[in-house]
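Pasting two entries for a bug report.
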Amino acid sequence: MLDQTTSILSEETLNGPETVVLKEPFPILIASNQLPANLAEEIDRDFPQYTGAGYLPHEEKDCGPTINTIVSEMTSREFANSLGKHLGVPNLGDYPTMVSICRSLNKKHGNIHTDSNSKIVTCLLYLNPGWMQNSEGCLRFLRRIDSFEDMVAPEIRPVYGSLAAFRRADNSFHGHLPYEGERRVIQVAWLTSEEEKLRKTKRGKMSRFLKWMTSSLGK
């Protein structure tokens, strides 16, 4: 059971020997085993029961306490500043955050892109208990916008406790091969301004409503 006095995410683990930091062609951090193994069942229980595919804005009422605690820690100033040191963004914790959660994807997701100019850093924490042996759905950081094969680093399997973060740039190409099915991830983005956060939040809520409508009509 979650001990409310103990952090789930550890700065020591984030800065540990299993963490890889790349500076070129854009700043990237890749880390594994970032979550305690004994919390896997609680995290599975507390993960939101979304029915639609894609990323939806985090809302506390959708999640159990363990997920909400992880979100709180990922958006904390301490975690952000630790991440920012690795990625060359001083005082990352001063910037507003936007949190979205994905339970499943369809095959339209994963196209190679860079992220919008309003994002400074994006962090992804994966929560799947296991993964297939092939490459479908595995995150790839890339050198080009037109090739999934020109990888900057080995692809990242979206398994429990794997974390990836990167600093947005005009060449911060990333994506994954088409995949359809459950792929659990918490995404935190640090944004350039509160105005951008408001704009993206409004868009996210509209997307959430449309997905709910689509799901309801399909019943």
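Entry 2 (this is the one that rendered wrong in the viewer):
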Amino acid sequence: MKKVKIAVVGAGSRGMYAYAPYLLDNPELGEIVAIAEPIDEKRDLFKNKYNLDSKNIFNSWQDLLANDKIADAIIIANNDDSHFEPAKLALEKGYHVLLEKPMSNDLNKVISLGELAKQYNNQVFMVCHVLRYTPFFNELKKIVESKELGELISIQHNENIGYWHFAHSYVRGNWRNSIETSPLILAKSCHDLDILLWLVDSPGEYISSFGNLSHLTSASFKTSMKDHCVKCDLQETCPYSAVKIYLEEDKIVRSLNAVHPHPTKYNLKKALQNGPYGRCVYKCDNNVVDHMVNIIEFKNKVTATFNLSAFTQECSRTIKLMFSHGEVGGNFTQNIIDIHKFGTNTHTIINPKLNQSGHGGGDYSLIKDFISSISSNDGELKTTAIKSVQSHVMAFAAEYSRISHKVINLSDFYNDIKENINKL
């Protein structure tokens, strides 16, 4: 198998910690050879972690891609609004591309990337819809395809964002403001819509969505609170206190790395004093919804509800699949699938085997498939830019439905966008 050389755009949580570490664990398959990152501390940390040559360290993706091709492939994991241009240029230069979701926060650019994927069909162009690579959802896919419970009729799917995770990413963090980044349904849940499309195996036909920013606003701010948590007297009683979340409770490392590239106790304390992650959740510039429900009908008449909410204890996904002859319940975080066939009193419990990587084992499986596809140049990929357009269209349509209070015909929505692109 050919050893693949990979450049990375963006040394954030996904570029630094989700995909690239696979090559540290499997050096015989490939190596990281370049980084483009505008923040000095992150760039230096990445350089040292992956032992990069100084000539391949860049301050921006523009600088990296201004050079002749220096790798076989590129992982693009920078901000949502900066995905289109480096992906387009990388394809033109002959790179294989792994693009973090969402493909773009501009639907015109999403569809354009889908068209570029068709144009550069000899290059691997995958989107990081990692749920398709998790043992959990692969097991559900097998159950659907086996027909052992009859025909799939309906799905209930919940994204339980978790109160502290929502505060971290969507109130204080990078995805708090849809004008600057993406709507919540796109930024957080385009891969949930993708997994529904994958399980149902039919295009979406209609979607109707409802949701609001109800609690995490300035209207909930009390005079006894302070703009920054470190100065607030309500630290002990407020569950959203940055002091609690970052200094007292045991949170995942990637969240702490977002607060400071070197998340020591001292550095975290300093970052919370005046930085964005130390702000009161009721005194931020967030505008994305904190709860949203979506109702979907697919072309094969399977129906689904998809509910996402900030107001949950766990950061988890739960799902229920209802068949003509049985039902299946699942908890993604607990890695439990419960199968019940009608007419029996028994339950079959499955605990899919996990590998040690993020997203329930999906991160490593995805990058493994990406590298394997470049090396062997055969086989059908589970996720591609062409396949991913559909879930993105659904996400934008959901947001439009939420705002307009209309039921959206997804085919009409897509065709209207394509028609406008062709007029440009």
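Dev reply: Rendering is fixed now. As a check, the viewer should reflect this: The longest helix spans residues 385-404.
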